[in-house]
Amino acid sequence: MKLLFIADIVGQPGRRAVKELVPRLRQQYRVDLVVANAENSAGGSGITVKTAEEIFSAGVDIMTSGDHLWDQKEVMDLLASERRFVRPLNYPAGTPGQGSVIFEAEGLPPVAVLNLQGRTFMPALENPFHAALAEVERLRRTTRVIFVDFHAEATSEKVALGRMLDGQVSAIVGTHTHVQTADEQIFPGGTAFLCDGGFTGPHESVIGREIEPIIRRFMTNMPQKFEVAKGRVLLQGALVEIDEQTGRAKGIQRVSEAL
Ligand SMILES: [Fe+2]
Ligand SMILES: [Fe+2]
């Protein structure tokens, strides 16, 4: 089976890329399941019911998130009732929402999607390594086809988690840094890995935002308004081919498609 993962959808340009490109990519690559990180889909910060609906209706099956989860208060509705939406698993006990979901569709094995958040240069959540081990063990009682979106800043943390889960999950793709890395590979145990999938949105930017205010911020340390940029919209992420019987990855390729 083939799974398309779409990295951080940023604002309206990112949603437009999803709407226009996902139907074509689904056909072109015979994609069975589409997972997308949507933490920046509403105006570049957070996610709302409306942006979620837009993304689902474009052909995305499951949405993941990250540290921008809380930027729109409407996210509480999604966390309460949207089964196709996952937030990082390693928020403290009692946090609304779910850290993983099992997707079921005709003609496919059950597919688990797990979302985790790193802790290096990021808010201190529960330890994602311990959380991942326990959750993967639980998910493997139902399925061997497991996809992980690890939303983290540090490449070392992402590679370490990937290596720890090698042989236990089908694929791990990193998100959050919005810069696509070129290290796609299959580890010896059969787990596909890409440190960062990049982002889906305007690339004539600083990771999705207008360039000038960001430079000004770095030069002056004064607060600036960071508007979502407009130019050179790309859909980025990864395409993973998975053996349905064993859950092992057969291939992984980077995706970077111009709108
Ligand atoms: Fe992001
Ligand atoms: Fe993030």
Task: Give an account of the 3D structure.
With 259 residues, the protein is α/β, with parallel strands linked by helices. 25% of the residues lie in helices and 24% in strands. The chain has six helices and twelve strands. The protein has helices at residues 11-28, 49-57, 75-81, 128-139, 155-164, 211-220, and strands spanning 2-6, 33-37, 62-64, 100-103, 111-117, 146-151, 171-175, 185-186, 192-194, 201-202, 233-242, 249-258. Strands 1, 2, 3, 10, 11 and 12 form a six-stranded mixed β-sheet that branches. The protein has a six-stranded mixed β-sheet with strand order 4-5-6-7-9-8, covered by helices on one side. The radius of gyration is 17 Å and the shape is globular. The chain binds fe (ii) ion (FE2) (2 copies). One fe (ii) ion binds at residues 39, 66-68, 151, 176. The site of one fe (ii) ion has 7 residues, from loops.
What percent of residues adopt helix (DSSP H or I)?
25-40%
**Which class of secondary structure composition applies to the elements?**
alpha/beta
Work out the strand percent.
15-25%
Q: Which outline best applies?
A: globular
Number of helices: 6
Number of strand segments: 12
Question: Tell me about the biggest sheet?
Answer: 6 strands, mixed
What does the oligomeric state look like here?
single chain
Distance between the termini: 25 Å
Mean pLDDT: 97
SSE ordering: EHEHEHEEHEHEEEEHEE
Instruction: Point out poorly predicted stretches.
Output: none
What ligands can be seen in this structure?
fe (ii) ion
Q: What radius of gyration results from the CA coordinates?
A: 17 Å
